[in-house]
Amino acid sequence: SAGPDWNNGFHQIRHHTLTPSYQNLHRELLLSHKRGLLLEEKPELKRVLEQRRLELHKEEELAQRRPSDLEMELRKRQLKLEEAIRQQENQQKIPEFVRVKDNLRRTQMSEQ
User: Fold this and answer.
1) Helix and strand tally (H, E) in the chain?
2) Of the given ranges (28-42, 49-63, 82-96), which has the lowest mean pLDDT?
3) How many CA atoms lie within 13 A of 76 on its CB side?
4) Contact at 8 Å (CB) between 47 and 40?
């Protein structure tokens, strides 16, 4: 009774390898191998880690080089804009009557 069970299992496995989708995949792999179009040598994880390492290296190089005049000017403008926004937010926190009082003082001082 062990013999027929073993044969049935063997035929089932072999039957699986004879399905059209399996045969198509196998045929495609053989053709790729003949043409020299082998699958990528590096697994996906290795490739992603290497790409990440290269990106970090590139970022480090950019950080080490001296910023250009344009980059420095843009940074100055950004800082001025951020400071103006902070001042505007601080002004909005001050009650209106205090702002009006300060504006009146400035007006009086400029007239003198």
Assistant:
1) 5, 0
2) 28-42
3) 7
4) yes
pLDDT in tens, 56-70: 999 888 888 888 899
pLDDT score, position 64: 85
DSSP states of 77-97: HHHHHHHHHHHHHHHHHS-HH
Token digits for 50? 């290497």
Domain boundaries, the chain: 1-39
And the tokens for 49? 């880690």
Instruction: Name the strand (E) or helix (H) holding 49.
Output: helix 44-64
**What's the CA angle centered on 35, arms 30 and 41, to 5 degrees?**
80
